[in-house]
């Protein structure tokens, strides 16, 4: 099963749009989904591991796939595969 992790922050103006997109896709498709706040220990660990410099960042199956708000169609294709 595909695992999607969205690294976000409360102060980010684009993050709510990315959250909404992934939550809607989660309702439609079967994949694992997790949101991680950047300013938490887990978020800081992910930022270091994946060299995250911008948010929102979407990690899929242990690989950074999208930086910023993903295109809905491209995001859909990634979780359907």
From TrEMBL:
The keyword Cell membrane does not apply. Keywords: Electron transport, Transport. Pfam families: Thioredoxin_3. PROSITE patterns: GLUTAREDOXIN_2. Residues 4-78 form the Thioredoxin-like fold domain. It comes from the Archaea. SUPFAM superfamilies: Thioredoxin-like (SSF52833). The keyword Ribonucleoprotein does not apply. Belongs to the glutaredoxin family. This is Thioredoxin. It comes from Methanolobus chelungpuianus.
